[in-house]
Write a structure and sequence with these properties.
The protein has 343 residues and is an alpha+beta fold. The protein has one domain (26-341): B-lactam Antibiotic, Isopenicillin N Synthase, Chain (Jelly Rolls, Sandwich), CATH 2.60.120. Helix content is 27%, strand content 22%. It contains eight helices and 16 strands. The strands form three sheets. Strands 3-4-12-9-14-7-6-5 form an eight-stranded mixed β-sheet. Strands 1-2-11-10-13-8 form a six-stranded mixed β-sheet, with no helix packed on it. Strand 1 and strand 2 (16-21) form a beta hairpin. Helix 2 crosses helix 4 (147-172). The longest helix is centred in the middle third of the chain and has 26 residues, at 147-172. The radius of gyration is 20 Å and the shape is globular. Keywords: Iron, Metal-binding, Oxidoreductase. This is 2-oxoglutarate-Fe(II) type oxidoreductase hxnY-like isoform X2. InterPro entries: DIOX_N (IPR026992), IPNS-like_FE2OG_OXY (IPR044861), IPNS-like_sf (IPR027443), Oxoglu/Fe-dep_dioxygenase_dom (IPR005123).
């Protein structure tokens, strides 16, 4: 693990990028001291938008099962995985280099592969017409028995954990505790599970090679489970020259939680959505991200507790579905490219 004062990487322009290890607040969801939880979370959201969550209701044994099932998928031959290529609803497999998160600094896409699983909606349900809703793309049971059951169970458990975190966020924003539980918010959310695999490449920021390029997440909050391989970095001040990147060490059994751009927008920039990236160090790395956003028709506009005459709203209102659709379009390869490769 890098030492706080002695490690670093060149940025490629003569500047020296100091690498540190971040010390994040830890929120215990089983704690009865709600005011302490609110205080710790609020401090984290004002400082860097990242924090740990423990005792979130998902056992370590089940988490290990989810990781094992994820590894089983990613070890399949590429030809089998490409049969499950993501569709227009962002369900299914995303190949190596498919996603380009930091086009100004990356020479290629991200050196990772992934798999999207969203809210399961039958194809004949009118709700399936909405972006990010519809049937998922599943491996067949003869190839990966039990895989779908495990992932659907995890999807539900992670959503409950996310709702618990959102209640503490509501209190930290001086809102009612159930503010985000409303049907138009997390009552009918756009919630997306994404399995991720980094194949052991070595990143080199000086030449634009990253496991995942620098970005902030699009939505409300993200819950990240990861193995014990170091790789995630955050930059608390994106405007600093040079940018200072800090590693976020994994904690066994904990989620790493971060705020998304939508919550920064909602809070009128009071809470921060922070740049983060992944650097590969030659070791394989697995992680599981769970992206939580409000419902399609939710109007994201400045919260009443986050504006005043001295601090008017900084952003116009926008519908959640329109906002997310554009962000995904901006960062993923056009599916026509894969169709062209097959012909």
């Amino acid at each position: 693990m890098p030492k706080q004062s002695s490690s670093g990487t060149s940025t490629g322009n003569g500047a020296f990028e100091v690498t540190k290890v971040s010390n994040l607040n830890c929120i215990d969801l089983s704690s009865s001291d709600i005011q302490r939880s609110v205080s710790l979370l609020k401090q984290a959201c004002l400082d860097c938008g990242f924090f740990y969550v423990i005792n979130h209701g998902i056992s370590e044994e089940f988490m290990e099962e989810v990781f094992d099932q994820s590894k089983r998928f990613f070890t399949l031959p590429l030809s089998e995985k490409m049969k499950l290529l993501r569709n227009e609803k962002h369900r299914g497999y995303t190949p190596l280099l498919d996603e380009l998160l930091d086009p100004n600094n990356q020479v290629h896409g991200d050196y990772k592969e992934g798999y999207y699983i969203g809210v399961e909606v039958p194809v004949d349900d009118p709700e399936a017409e909405k972006p990010f809703y519809g049937p998922n793309v599943w491996p067949t049971t003869d190839i990966l028995p039990g895989w779908r059951d495990t992932m659907e169970k995890y999807h539900q458990k992670a959503l409950e954990a996310a709702r618990s975190v959102a209640r503490i966020i509501a209190l930290a924003l001086d809102l009612e505790i159930d503010f985000f539980d409303k049907p138009e918010m997390l009552g009918q959310p756009i919630a997306t599970l994404r399995l991720l695999h980094y194949g052991g490449d070595i990143s080199n920021p000086s030449v634009g090679i990253f496991g995942a390029g620098a970005h902030s997440d699009y939505g409300l909050i993200t819950l990240l489970a990861t193995d014990n391989v170091l790789g995630l970095q955050i930059c608390k001040d994106k405007d600093a020259k040079p940018q200072v990147w800090e590693y976020v060490p994994p904690i066994k059994g904990a989620f790493i939680v971060n705020l998304g751009d939508m919550l920064e927008r909602w809070s009128n920039c009071i809470f921060k959505s922070t740049l983060h990236r992944v650097l590969g160090n030659g070791q394989e790395r697995y992680s599981i991200a769970y992206f939580v956003e409000p419902s399609h028709d939710c109007l994201v506009e400045c919260l009443p507790t986050c504006k005043s005459e001295e601090n008017p709203p900084k952003f116009p209102p926008i519908k959640c579905a329109a906002y997310l659709s554009q962000r995904y379009k901006d960062t993923h390869a056009d599916l026509k490219l894969y169709k062209a490769e097959r012909t």
